[in-house]
Amino acid sequence: MARQPSIELLAPARNEAVARAAIDCGADAIYIGGPALGARRAAANSVEEIARVVEYAHLFGVRVYVTMNTLLYDSELSEAEHLARQLAAVGVDALIVQDVAYLRMGLPIELHASTQMFNATAEQVAFWAECGLKRVVLERNLSLSDIRTIAEQCDTELEVFVHGAICVGYSGRCFLSRSMGPRSGNRGDCMQGCRLSWDLEDSSGRKLFREKHLLSVCDMDLSGRIGDLLDAGVCSFKIEGRLKDEAYVRNVVSYYRRVIDHELSRRPDLQRSSVGVSRVDFEPDLRKTFSRRGGEYFLDGVRRGVAEFDTPKAMGERLGRVSAVRGSCIKIDNPSVKLVAGDGLCYMTPNGLIGTNVNGSEGDMVVLNRAEGLRVGVEVYRNYDHAALKAISRARLRRAIPCVAEVLASPDRVSVRYTECRGVSVEVAVERPFDEAENRAFALRNLREALSKSGATIFDVTEVRIDEEGFLPFMPMGELSDLRRRGLDMLAAESAKLMPECEHFVENYSALAPKSIGSECNVVNRVAEQFYLDHGAESVAWGKESAESFEDEVVMTTRYCLRREMGECLKCGSKLRGPLYLVHGMHRYELQFDCARCEMKLLCK
C-alpha cells in the first residue's frame, strides 16, 4: 500500500456562503460546482465566486475542488478546456472529472477521477493511477474489504463517501434517467427515477407491489466507521450534498470534524491536511438535518434492510407512538420529547407518508395543524426540529489558527515575534527609549493581555512568551495594541502565501487500458476515443449516453438486489420464480439477477 497522505474531511458547497460555513466548521477541503459542466446543474457558481472561496480557503490550507464531472460532446471540448484553465488560474486545487478528454488537455492543475468513472475494482483504480491521476473517488457500493484491497494494490489517494445520499446504480453506468426521457445523470440533470414509485410485476402481469419506492435506498452514515476506513487506507472522507442548504452543511461537517479528530488522536502517525481550530455555538446532531434513515449500506458486505419502500423522503428522528387522539390534538408516549410550535412531524398511513406541523401544546397534548389518518399506535417522527435548526442556522462560527507570541525587550527596542502552527513567523518592533516597569506583575499582565487578543483575525494566540527575569518595559496599552495588530496583519499576509500541495496532471502514456472499451464506459467524443486507443484498447464502443433508443439495453447495474431486499434471494431458496418487471407508467424494465456476482440489472423493455 502506498504511503498514506494527510487526512481530509471533504465538504460540499452549493455556493460561496455554504463554502465559507463548511470551512469555518472544520472542512479540510470543499468541492463546489463551476459555471457549467458539473453533475449538479442547480449548483453552479461563477469563476469570480470560486476565486473568493479559494482566497478564504487557502488561509487555512483548505483545498478547493471544482466538479467538472459530466460527459463532454465534441462541440463542448473547447468550452471545457477554457473553463478548466480559468479555474486553474484563480487557484483551484483540483478538478473532479468524469470524461477522459480532460486528461488530454494539458491542464496545469491536479485531476481527480470522479466516482462517475466507475471506480469499483483494483484494476480500474490502478489504471487511473498509472495514467497519472492523483486521486480516485471510489464507488459507493463497495465494502470495507473491497476498499482495503484497492488500497493495498493501488498507488493513489482514495476518497470515499461517508455521509448522504447513495446512487443505487453503479455511478456513471446508470442510464435509467436517460432511458425515461432527455434528462441524464451523466450530463448533470438526473431525474432520479430511482426515487419514484414502481409496481413490481411477474411474467403474467400479477402485481406483487403497487406504487412502492422499490429502488430508493437509505442514505449513508459511516460516522461510526471512520477508524476502520482510516486503517483501510482512505485519506479523504466525503460528505454528499452539493444541493444541501447551509444548516445541513454546518451540522454534518461539525459532527464529522469531531469524529475524525477523535480517530486521528488515536493514530499519531496521521495528521489532518489543513489547520485551524473550529468553534461552533451548537451541538451537532446528525438526526437534526436531512437523512433517509442513514445506515452503513454494504460496508460489511451485501445485506437486506437498505431500502425504504414506503417513502423516498427523510422521516427524521423517531419520537414514539401516539397514545391518544382528540381531534387535531395527540399525545405521544415519550415524555422526554419537547415539541414546540413550528416543528414538523410525519407519520405513515395506508395512503402513504403524511406531514403536519405543531401549532402548540395543551397540557400533555400536542396541537397539530392537521391530524389526517392519525390513530392510537401510529409511530410519529420529527423531520423538522425548529429550535435545533434555528440554533444551527444562527450559531456563530469561528475558525482560528493557533499561534504563539514571543516578546524580546531591551531599553531601546521591543519586538514581538508571532509564529503560527505551520512555522510561518513574522516580527514587529517599536524602537525608542523605554523605561523599565516599576510594577513587574502589572507589566507582565498588560503584555499578555494586549498581545494575546486576536479579535476578528484568523488567529488564536495560545501563548505569550516573555522573559520574566529580563527587562520589562513600561508601554501604553495603545502602543501594545498597535504592535499586536501589525503583527497579526503581517502574519496573515505571510500565511496567505502558503499554498496547499498539489501535483499538476501529467499523462503517463504507458498505462494499459482494457482491450475492449464497452458502451457503458461513456465515450462520447473523439478525444476520449483516441485516449483509450493510445493506451492499448483494440476496440472502443460509442457510449450509451448518446443512444437514441434504450430498448433491450441494460440501463442500470447495482449491488442492490430487490429479491434480497424482499427476502426472496434465489441463492437462499426463493419460491418466487420467473421473470420480474419494474413498471412506472409507460416505462417497463426486466430485472436480471447475476447471483454469482451478487448484482441486479435493469433491462429496458
Entry keywords:
single chain; 605 residues; alpha/beta; Thrombin, subunit H; 8-stranded parallel barrel; 13 helices; 23% helix
By DSSP (H or I, 4+ residues per run), the number of helices equals 13
Rg from Cα:
28 Å
What count of domains describes the coordinates? 4
Query: Any idea what the shape is?
Result: globular
Overall pLDDT, averaged? 94
- Named at the architecture level, the CATH assignment of the largest domain is Alpha-Beta Barrel
DSSP summary, beta strand count: 28
Instruction: Please estimate the helix content.
Output: 10-25%
CATH topology of the largest domain: TIM Barrel
What would CATH call the class of the largest domain?
A: Alpha Beta
Largest sheet: 8 strands, parallel, barrel
Strand content: 25-35%
Structural category: alpha/beta
- The CATH superfamily label of the largest domain reads Copper homeostasis (CutC) domain
The unreliable regions are none
Distance between the termini: 44 Å
Structure description:
By secondary structure, the protein is of the alpha/beta class. It folds into 4 domains: 8-166 and 218-274 and 282-288, Copper homeostasis (CutC) domain (TIM Barrel); 169-214 and 549-605, no CATH class; 317-394, Thrombin, subunit H, CATH 2.40.10; 401-495, no CATH class. Helices cover 23% and strands 27% of the residues. Strand 15 and strand 16 (352-362) form a beta hairpin. The protein starts with 7 loop residues before the first strand and ends with a strand.
